[in-house]
Specification:
The chain is of the alpha/beta class and 479 residues long. It has a single domain, classed as Amidase signature (AS) enzymes, CATH 3.90.1300.10. 42% of the residues lie in helices and 14% in strands. It has an 11-stranded mixed sheet with strand order 1-3-2-4-6-5-10-11-9-7-8, with helices on both faces. It is globular. Its EC number is 6.3.5.-. It comes from Ruegeria denitrificans. One of its GO terms (molecular function) is ligase activity. Pfam families: Amidase (PF01425).
Amino acid sequence: MTHTDIWRLTATDLTALTRSGKLSAEDAVQSSIERMHQANPNLNAVVEDLSSEALERARALDKARAQGASTGPLHGVPVTIKINVDLKGHATSNGVVALKDVIAPDDAPIVRNLQNAGAVVIGRTNTPEFSFRADTDNPLHGRTHNPWGRHISPGGSSGGAGSAVMAGIGALAHGNDIGGSLRFPAAANGAVTVKPGLGRVPAWNPSQKVERGLLAQSMSVQGLITRSAADLHLSMPSLIAADPRDPFHVPMPWHGAPCDGPIKVAFTKDTFGYALHPEVDKALDTARDTLIDAGYQVQEVSPPDVFECGRTGYRALMGEVLTLLKNDIEAAGSQTIRSIFDVYFQEFPPITGTELLQMMAKRSHYAREWSLFMQDYPLVLSPFLPQPFFKPDRDTEGAEGVHEVLGCAVYSYAMNFLGLPAACVPARLAELPQGSQPINIQIAARQWREDMAVDAAAAIESRVGQMCEPLWQKMGTSA
């Protein structure tokens, strides 16, 4: 492999070279920076170039290693950080013009954990305004494009992260997820992710002036978008390191105890009245058959009411948003985001007042039902979306657009309300009239068992392959 091709390596393959000394951190980072400069102009995935800082840090890592210092598990791995999380000395704009000069006084826990593990931040990735769309565009940095083509949204809100990592800009991409913001970009771009469960990854922004609402605290999580499932096993143990600034972090090990006998998987194609697209149907069949071949015991059985749980959870979140965030959106948001929120409130009528407190209390009922169900079925294989990923700006097209983008995504935000981990992995490359695009499915897991979801994603990936290779062939050498 030539120097210019190093960016193609997964984080797992890259660290085997950097930690052994066969490859310098500087060369690893330089190759990713060159790829960023080649590919990003057509994508606008990275909106702050940190090349100079990255190379300086990579050289420092090389010097430390030469002097006998031990290397971290992510030694020399180029990563990107989403612009809604604090990186010391840089703006945490969240895609909002009014926040463009909010400079972070310190690193967020996830940034600190990545850097403590030896990762090198090469750039900051785009997000929609207030990180509250399943698409990525904003007046401050503009639109992010999907490397598969402009017929597909890059997803959101971690759309810049998903686009960047699949284009080869960094081996790992940081993102976060309050209703699907890791999994939407993974599905849009053909990447792999796991939404961690509640309390798994420490979170806090030192730049924030007030604490987030209780539902935002309990539904939002930090994570990574990758090109391979193995990279999640490599990197997530570093992400879950404790940080005292998150008082609700739970210090559990990454790998849990093995299950007795074959792992039972609940398999469902239920889409609650939404039409299941034939390509999604085929992707689910492939995932099911792969897991059976891998020794899982897959049974077609419906989990507890996903639709009621998901809709209740998102309506409750909208009630909290209406109370705590709407004034900020009205004051600092563009007309586009204000209009989208007007439709959000129609699609998900906000639960407020006494009923909001009742539904927040009922969250434990839903979580208990799932906890009991998952005693028998530790994993649940389901659609992520019932149809292939939508086009850019679909959520600006009124009630019908928002319904297609978020209304049908109950398998996504139900997991946030429940606090359960959920992996998202491509199971098919579809050839559609508008062009080729990946089809991802979801694997939910028991609380604290992200590792089991990632194992299942790895099994599916072993049959389907990583989507980066066909994507890079499609992109061509000019990106």
